[in-house]
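WARN no homologs supplied; continuing
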Amino acid sequence: MAKYKDTDLAYIAGLLDGEGTISIAAGSKKWPALRVEIASTDYEVLHYAEQVLGVGKIHSQGQFHPLGGRPCFKYYIYCQKASDVLGLVLPYLHIKKQQAILGIKWQKNIVGRKQPGEVRKYYIDQMRALNHKWRLL
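OK structure emitted
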């Protein structure tokens, strides 16, 4: 990957901490895949992140609110590219640092290796628990 400014990586980490999700979810071939996503009603914010990182895609999610309003967009990065991005922003993450570490470990230790199903399930369950901890407060 190219050379990045610390300020750009810190900004993207802030977007991920505030409006993002790190997950291990069913991929295009129904196999679990690392996924990083950031949602926003401001397309330019996501476009900036996409331009800085040079990876991922932005998709329109339609209207943000059922009664109308601003359209919502999501910026997605998958698999090894997601792991690479997490490695870049890891020093700047606060809220989602544990999810990022787990996602990087998943990509390094699980993907493309013949691991027992219970090992894969452990990672998926750990990520799910980390992502749901804030809902319990």
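Residues 72 and 136 are 26 Å apart (CA to CA).
OK
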